[in-house]
Write the structure tokens for this entry.
Amino acid sequence: MDLDSLRFANLSDLDAAITDWEQMVAKLKILQEDAEDDLKAKSDKANWAGENATVTRAFVDKTAAEFADAHTQADTIKKIVTDTRGELVSYRTQLNEAIDRGLKKNLTVRDTGEGTFTVTMNIHPDRAAKGTTVPEHSQQDVDAFRDEIQNIMKKATESDTSAAKVLTLLVGQAKSGFSGASYADRDSAAKAVEEAETVAKILKKDAHDVTLTELNTLNTTLAAYRNDPLFAERFATQVEPKRVLEFYAGVADPYQGMGRDPKFHEQAKQLQKNLGITLGTATLSDSDKMQTWEADMVKLGPERLGIDDANDPTGFGVMSNLMRFGDYDDQFLNSYGDKLLAYDKERNVEDMSPWINNWNQGDLNFWDKNDRGRDPMTGFMEALGHNPDASTQFFAQPEGAGDTVDKDGELNEHLKYLTQERIWLADQTPDGDDKFNAGKDALGHALESATTGYAYDADPMTGKDPLHPGSADHRTAATAGVMEQVAYLYGSDKGPEMLHKQSELADSLGKMGAAYIDDIDYSLSGIGNHALDDSAYPAKYAGRANFGNEGAVNFLSVLGQSETSHGVVSAAQHLYTLSALDAFPATSEANIDNAHDAMTTGAEARGILDHSRVQQAETTYKDDAEQANKSLGRSGDWVKLGAGVVVGGGIAAIPLPGSTAAALVVAPMAADTVGDMVNTFIGHEVDKSIDDAEQDATEKSQMTSQEFYNKGTDQLGSTYEAYLKENPELGDSTDFRDWTQDLENGYDLGSSQNDYRGRAPYKG
């Protein structure tokens, strides 16, 4: 900034701009509220059909979000401009006051252009008027005056140029639409950019020359700013993609860890997370620089980095470990994944893995003892597991598929390859579980994300989910399209073998089945695929999943084979039926009919699950009745899950044993609020015989198939009695007295039809 520009600055244009932005912010706030409370609210309540159910609703949702981003961006711009204007006024005042003080010592400044100036005497003593005494000054006064002016101009220039920089970066965040980046003032935005430029210099160094102090500084700064949009973009674009990969590989596995201070291990671990999240935030920017950065990173995927560290990994080998953490741009992940799968398919040869082999000893993952990070597909699946929109796109149902998936031609090629064709090898560390395959587990996480709309390890009740805060049903026609494919694959004749050879997916499959239990019941509710019960099972979202009657039976029969998935889906089924009874109190004939159908269809689903569980236990432990009975005993433990259920926003969060956020099951509810029927399960007192069996292995081993079935019918009977207790006027109804037989028939139908429908137990 030139001295005269600041000294004689006319800020009226800036004042007018601030006024315009203030008015714009106020107007956009009204539009944001209208879009959210009127436009989107009406869209959410509307009963869309056909393309409107997907295209129009998605457009409305996106439009409402854009109004919110527009308001945020305008408010941030207003704050930055206002803050900058205030600073410039302050610096102009300081400059003029300094000049006035200089005049008292016969000193002044002259603008010499291009940000330079010179200090001169105001009046040369030889030219002073006769009788005029010119103030004297020393060289020290000259130097002090010069330094003061220079310091003011430096600060003013920094304020002006940094404001221009952050505003340019802010606007560039979204090529079309608006950025949701928010800053309170120019200082905070400028500070983020400055910090990014400072720590980016560390990445430009040779990783072997970086000190522990520098790594700590890098980690501390990244941890503080990793979710800051301007920081993340500025940081990423200061370092070429290849350099980022070389640096992390060098820190993580320098010459396979020889001769490195053990403290570097913890710094490398934190760097994996902090750097991963920061790069993810950076990819959310639409700026030209970031688009180029992302394209270059994808191109690097198949290439060797040409380094000594980590066995000279490919770009895929390093980047997949960084993207385990963070929210990455959907298009970037899909482009990256397309290239990774194409590369992987060409090398998917028995005993010839390009990733997990004796000569690849590079360790690039610090967060799982069962996963060294050698297989990049694992890290990529984890990235999809944290990014629901990206995973839903990656496994999207092909165009032209029918109402339900009933043939292989309607399967997504990525999904078909990863579930049926790819050779997944275990990659555990020396102290890991050699029977556990982290890659298959990560595939399950990606499918959970793609089908439920939640990051697989999100807590839907606390909002601890960067993508979808708060509780709600996030299913859409697109997520349902992925779920239909999953149900078809694992409900196929190969399903039992797939489940048992991919046992790491059992919990994920159970969570997916639980998330769609209402749609599964709906598919069971008719006669074949006819007369489906829309009244008892109204759609909770547009474009609901359609499994077909046979498809629902097949899928449930496979889920029932696993102790894990059987328990998860049984709990979700029981809870959904109870919520339906809360939703349909006996206040009308229609409600009574719906309650009846919800109970009988739920009983049928339970029968399928329980019969499959009994058959599989008997098949797996055919020579050991005690082990078979213990297995059934464990399967009865699912009733304990009710003690930790939390309900809100039309969904329930069901904790699995040893629950963490990653072990929460998101299941739909028929009613948005908790009623008396649901309360019979929440906080449920555990069946004493099962509780005692935990203390006595001998007792627990006595859970025979007959007792297992008896417990199933007894639970249905308890539900029946609870509904009667809530609606005592039904006791005199002849039709209601027939419900006991209907429920028993439903449970028996579910059990018996497994003999001629559904999938047989796995005998491998």
